[in-house]
Amino acid sequence: MSPIRDPIHGYIEISPHIEKLLDTRIVQRLRNVKQLGWTNLVYPGANHTRFEHSLGTYYLASRLGSELSEEERREIEIAALLHDIGHGPYSHDSEDIIEEYTRRKHDDVLFLLENPEIATILDEYGIKPSAISSHIQGKTKVGQIITGSLDVDRMDYLIRDSYYTGVAYGIVDYEHLLRNIRFYDNNIVLYYRGLKSAESLLMSRFLMYPSVYDHHVGRIAGSMFVHGIDAAISEGDMNAFELQLMDDYELNERMRHFNKYSAEMIGRLNSRNLFKRALYVGFDSVDRSIVRYTRIHKDIEREIARMAGIDSGYVLIDIPKIPDFRERNATVLMENDQLKYLDDVSNLVKIMEESYSSDWRMGVYTLPEYREKVGRIARDYFNVEKVPKQSKLEVV
Q: Could you give the domains of the chain?
């Protein structure tokens, strides 16, 4: 197979075992699953797919696994290519609803690896589907390359997402980083000389969250999408197990013919006729314990809608998780061969770790005409503190 030309990594050479997997229906579905879901409503260029990202992750894994045995390298390359086959339509935007109904996370892909289409190819190389599944979930030594404290999955999506959104925060010297990540006592470590490159990667992720991944328009669109899907499942238009195997285009088309509410939500998304923020606050206004309300957000939505005198489904509660900062567990091999945790070596990483929660926002979304009423009720319901505004800078 001829090399594949990628705008991020240049020419990507395709190994024979990868070529066979690329042509499967399970992998080709990823061509029609957007990497950033509905984020293209904010950044019009964000139309790249899980397929491109999977190729990029495979390329970086092959680079980082160059010192592994032939068998280990083949397995980690396959795992890298297949690590996202469990993503549903619009990627992370459907992830929570799929997990709610199926109890599968997007990396629970053993059922897909055991599909004869994939399993037959793995069997040719004497590879068990369970081995690839363990690598994808980071449960093995080599699996750390894909799912670890400093992994190639993250390297690729940060650079790729930055490129396609046009947000310049994703500039990372991954070449230098790859040269300074190695296995040491069966664990991946970062050589101290690569510290600045690692800081650059983590700073990129830190800045991309509020600018891209948690942009309020993307959050609103994602919430509308999820509520439309939830209604479709509740009304019996489809089941969540079926949902996980669809692509963006199939689901988009089918939702137009589902129940009235689901059809309205997808229609609004396709015409960018979105709900608006009735309430949008951070931890300076609400207690951190509010994150626990995620489990009962549907009950809260119904209650606020009842109090506002509007139909249920037109009040959307969005309580995001606080971003996981597992990078703090990355191990740095110092120049004196001593091992230290990354946040003990880098003050910058320590500051980022402490600052992630400052960008967290809870949202309550509704139609424009209900915005003021719903906002007032939600503010009282959540006991939101009013933060005084400083009208001008004071010269000291």
A: 1-166 (1.10.3210.10)
Helix axes 371-381, 297-308, angle to 10 degrees: 130
Is the distance from CB of 180 to CB of 55 less than 8 angstroms?
no
Amino acid at 210: P
pLDDT tens digits, one per residue of 203-232? 888 889 999 999 999 999 999 999 999 999
Contact 94, 248 (CB under 8 A): no
Do 315 and 305 form a contact (C-beta atoms < 8 A)?
yes
Give CA–CA dist 241/306, Å, rounded. 32
* Best CA proximity match to 226, nearest among 149, 321, 313: 313
What's the pLDDT score for residue 168?
Answer: 81
Contact 69, 225 (CB under 8 A): no
CA atoms of 161 and 194, how far apart (whole Å): 23
* Alpha-carbon 17 to chain mean position: 27
Q: Which helix (H) or strand (E) holds 305?
A: helix 297-308
Residue type, 136: I
> What is d(CA 318, CA 236) in angstroms, rounded to the nearest whole number?
24
Residues 6+ apart with CB under 8 A from 384: 279, 281, 285, 286, 378
pTM above 0.90, yes or no: yes
Q: Report, in this order, helix, strand and coil percent for the chain, each rounded to 5.
A: 60, 10, 35
Burial 40-73 (b: 16+ CB within 10 A, else e): bbbbeebebbbbbbbbbbbbbbbbbbeebeeebb
Q: How long, in residues, is the chain? A: 396
| Cα–Cα distance, 171 to 204 (Å, whole number) | 7
Under DSSP, the state recorded for 287 is: -
116/120 Cα distance (integer angstroms): 5
**122-177 tens-digit pLDDT:** 999 999 999 999 999 999 999 999 998 889 999 999 999 999 999 987 677 889 99
CA atoms of 316 and 277, how far apart (whole Å): 10
Strands 187-191 and 331-333, bridge-based pairing: parallel
Structure tokens at 133: 């599944």
Residue carrying the six token digits 């790859």: 178
